[in-house]
Amino acid sequence: MEEKNNLSAKKRMMLGLVLYMLVCIVLVCRLAYLQFVGASQLQAKAENQQRSAREVGARRGTIYDSSGETVLAVSSTVYTVTVNPMKIPADKKEILARKLSEIFELNYEKVLKRVNKKSAIETIIKRQDKEKTDSLRAWMEENEIYVGINIDEDTKRYYPFSNLASHIIGFCGSDNQGLEGIEAKYEKILSGKSGEINSLTDAKGQSFGDAGENYIEPTDGKDLVLSIDSNIQAIVQKHLEEACIDNVCTDGGSIIAMNPQTGDILALANYPSYDLNSPYQPVDEELKAVWQDLEQVQRSNYLMGMWRNKAIADTYEPGSTFKLVTASASLEEGLAEVDRKGAFACTGAIEIAGVRIKCWRYYRPHGSESLREALMNSCNPVFIGLGQKIGKEKYYGYLNKFGFLKKTGIDLPR
Ligand SMILES: [Zn+2]
Q: Which of 203, 225, 247 is the last residue of a domain?
């Protein structure tokens, strides 16, 4: 009997020990899980409730034309409205959501959802002008709401000349980031570094006083001065538009004006250009009318085409302008003189590898001519003949010496 009791006491002890160990193991596992696996998630959750960080946008650099005075792109002050739902009294949430949706023309249900969220910061709307945010400020004062709504300064890009040099300047996205042209190419220089207002709150949404607020000042972006002369650019665009309309150029057209001494680009235009202040609107009037009915893919294809800088992104056969290169190479090689009468003869065509290539004036051939005359006449057979005499290796060497095989150095995204 005693032995039995002893045995069962032992058994009970063993059982107790095993149970105790099991509980310990479970606890250790849970602790390890919280420490190593769930920690970052939990921390993020706590941060989300306790820490509200509001971005303070840096002022984006101004873009000037070659005069250094004419402004092509500039940032103006706008306001971003955020709320801290934890700080808004429960009985004010509905009227606040109502007012916010009224002032900023937003969907009431959506705003109310944000105002009711269990987070320390919710963005209501970005990029609002002073008039609207002032009316919000006045309403807050009237209703004695002093916490939980933040109206922070931000900047918005503005292009004073709308469609001037649109393919050069490019535009910015909803977060002020450069998406096209110079705005994209020089994003790092123009953008600067945004700052932050950090405020820490406890679990009930009460702030920790001064210790809880931390302001990191933004660093403004740097300005840029382009080689583009806004006057020349305007003249080029005007004449390009006229020429494209008069000649019914359905594929549009491009003009580049360059300073031959320095290689500076003074103007670069494609037709049609677009309005940098509303880059997502089509330029075509007929298209504007049916724009909303189009499929998303159709709209984006059109916009990509509209933004494309055809002057540098597309290839274009140089044609007869290349005769200058052939003429220069043949003079350098001693294969021709400028004014030797009757040095060449145009019969209206020349045969190359069994193919007859015509002169543009095949119906009334140029006949006897000097190099100068052949160039003035843009006579095809003469320059084909000279090209053959130079030979492909040497000709290629001249192309290289003229710099045709090198990149142009135009600092624009393709
Ligand atoms: Zn000819």
A: 225
Whole-number Å distance, alpha carbon 196 to ligand 1 midpoint, is 71
Q: CATH number of the domain that 128 lies in?
A: 3.90.1310.10
Q: Which amino acid is at 348?
A: G
pLDDT in tens, 339-356: 999 999 999 999 999 999
CA separation for the pair 105, 94 (Å, rounded): 16
Residue 257 lies in a domain: yes
* Of 291, 313, 335, the domain-final residue: 313
Å from CA of 389 to ligand 1 middle = 18
Partners of 214 in the β-ladder: 198
Contact 171, 279 (CB under 8 A): yes
Residues paired with residue 240 on neighbouring β-strands, in sequence order? none
Q: Are residues 73 and 218 in the same domain?
A: yes
What's the gap in Å between 106 CA and the centre of ligand 1?
Answer: 70
**Residue 154 falls within a domain, yes or no?**
yes
78 and 175 within one domain: yes
Average pLDDT over residues 194-213: 68
Tell me which of 300, 320, 328, 368 is the catalytic residue: 320
Does any domain span residue 45? Answer: no
CA of 370 to the centre of ligand 1 (A): 12
Does residue 22 lie within any of the structural domains? no
Say what the pTM is.
Answer: 0.70
Same domain, 331 and 213: no
Assigned token pair, 163: 């469609």
Query: Counting every residue, how long is the chain?
Result: 414
3-state helix, strand, coil in the chain (%, to 5): 45, 20, 35
Write down the H helix ranges in 76-209: 93-103, 108-116, 130-142, 166-169, 181-185, 187-191
- Provide the number of structural domains found in the chain: 3
- Distance (angstroms) between ligand 1 centre and the Cα of 25 equals 97
The boundaries of the domain holding residue 281 are 230-313
Question: Is 101 a known active-site residue?
Answer: no
For 166-176, b/e burial (b = at least 16 CB within 10 A) is: bbbbbbbeeeb
Cα of 128 from ligand 1 centre, angstroms: 66
The model's pLDDT over 245-288, given as tens digits with 9 standing for 90+, comes to 999 998 899 999 999 999 899 999 999 999 999 999 998 888 89
Angle, in degrees to the nearest 10, between helices 323-332 and 392-402: 110
